[in-house]
Amino acid sequence: MKKNYWKSAVAGTIGAALLVTAGCSDTSDLGSQTAGDGKEAVLTVWGLSDFLKGEESPGQQMVNEFNEKYKGQIRVEARYMPAAEYNTAIQAAIASNDLPDIYQTPSSSDIRTFVANGHVLPFDGLVSDSWKSRFFEGSFVEGVNVIDGKTYSWPLTGPQLGSILYYNKDVLKQTGLDPEKPPKTWDELIEMARTVTAKGKGDVFGVVFGGGESGGNSGVVNFVNALAAGASPEAAGGFNYKTGKYAYDSKATLDSFNLLLNLKQDGSILPSSFTLKGAEAGIMFGQGKAAFLIDGRARMWIVKRDTPDAKFGLAQVPTPDGSKPTYYYVPVNPSGYMISSKTKHPKEVGIFLENGFTAPIFYERYLKSGVALTPIESINNNKSLYPYPEFNTFMQLHKDLLRVRPDYAVKNAQTAKVVVELGTLDQPKVKPGFNDILQSVLSGTQKDAAGLLKAYNDKLNKGLEEAINKVKASGGNVSPDDFKFPNWDPKKDYTGDDYKALK
Asked: Which in 72, 173, 415, 495 has the greatest CB count within 10 A?
């Protein structure tokens, strides 16, 4: 079973040593595998990961270096697309039977669905036997990225903190507030946002977010979920793993949404927030148009990139009483980069994956860019790679606020069949979705958030029940209890012993 990611420095050091040894032998072995006809094999890579955006990005630099090393044998063409464009492009590629050689799971999709539909190849036999050892323990789980014993992806990053309070120090200072004391409670957030807005005189506001994004990427959804975690972490995010039921109408969620409504009523939100994309909201924040932005781990490096002169800090998202919020993650999740089942160059794809896309030099550059933590612990612990002072706070927030949650796939790998029926556990086909409901109330076209979210819960719970019954009817061994973890304490990592205690 899994161990605590943060408590394995020794294992990480040993893994790093093995990695150096394995990397040397693997490169020479795989390097001899070139296109059988002697021609240069061209591999296409599509993704919506920020690390592929722009020629100076760590992903594109990695591709350029790989192409130089394998010149005349393999050439990789990597393409970044924003989420909405990417999702459309992948669906079109599936329809035309022309998927790129390597591609990322689209938003609101799942590796397991792509495996079930025959769109991907397993990695087995295309990368070396030692390849998996470079990643932290728990990186490959049956029912998640391993299906029927075959491996279909790898954890792209280390743990990712999806909720951070970014505060603009210049804005706070100009407003007469202490630039080193961000709000810790909900009341402090409201009061400080009001103060900034009043003194901003229509030019500077308390809060900005990317309300123009859709689905789970919406700044509205992120804002509400981030606040809800401080009130009741087991209910934040929509699914309660304690009860095995959807919880979009929880008190924590409704209270968090009401706080957002209060900020709007106060006029404390930058008016364009309701149509801004996430990147645009980050630029507004970096340019000093707002004091506070609640966003995920990626916003730090993007603000650094887009507004390099911005002076800002990072802190935990405010909670009702100022206590520490808790966010959760699983060491492996059913999303990532996959190999197309239609690729004409499987051997060359394996070479690129092992010696380019997942090579230590790429992840070192990845950490240096500030994009996120990596799935290689020895690299994360190397402070000489930290790109700027804020990264120390970034790292500490990850350690302080993130905990491992229970994983239904670990409890029963056959739950993967249920998830395939649903699309993802979020059930993206159910409309209107969470973001749609919040946006409708925020805009005033609807009034009853509690009633709408209760109805949404009912639909989702019914959908989960029907999917379980369908899998059972086809011979699958699953039950609603597979999604329920009554012994889960969100303040602690869920361990192997916790899984055993359920039996």
From this structure: 415
CA 19, CA 401: separation in Å to the nearest integer?
Answer: 29
Rounded Cα–Cα distance for residues 314 and 294 (Å): 10
Q: Which residue is associated with the tokens 């999702």?
A: 87
* Helices and strands (H, E) in the chain, number of each type: 19, 15
Tens digit of pLDDT per residue, the chain (503 long)? 333 433 333 233 323 333 333 333 343 344 444 445 578 999 999 999 888 989 988 999 999 999 999 999 999 999 999 988 999 999 999 999 999 999 999 987 889 889 999 999 999 999 999 999 999 888 998 888 999 999 999 999 999 999 999 999 999 999 999 999 999 999 999 999 999 999 999 999 999 999 998 777 788 999 999 999 999 999 888 999 999 999 999 999 999 999 999 999 999 999 999 999 999 999 999 999 999 999 999 899 889 989 999 999 999 999 999 999 999 988 888 899 999 999 999 999 999 999 999 999 999 999 998 888 999 999 999 999 999 999 999 999 999 999 999 999 889 989 989 998 998 899 999 999 999 999 999 999 999 999 999 999 999 999 999 999 999 999 999 999 999 999 999 999 999 899 999 97
Contact by Cβ (8 Å): 404, 434:
no
- Give dist(CA 116, CA 139) in Å, integer: 21
Task: Tell if the pTM clears 0.70, that is, is over it.
Answer: yes
Half-sphere exposure of 269 toward its Cβ, with a 13 Å CA cutoff? 22
Dihedral pair phi/psi, residue 272, rounded to 5° = -75, -5
Cβ contacts of 419-425, under 8 Å, gap ≥ 24:
419/110, 419/112, 419/113, 419/334, 420/110, 420/112, 420/113, 420/116, 421/467, 421/470, 421/471, 422/463, 422/464, 422/467, 423/108, 423/109, 423/110, 423/113, 424/108, 424/109, 424/110, 424/334, 425/239, 425/464
Map residue 312 onto helix, strand or coil: strand
Which residues have C-beta within 8 Å of that of residue 150, sequence separation ≥ 6?
122, 123, 124
- How many angstroms separate the CA atoms of 273 and 263, rounded? 12
CA angle 203, 205, 208 (to 5 degrees): 120
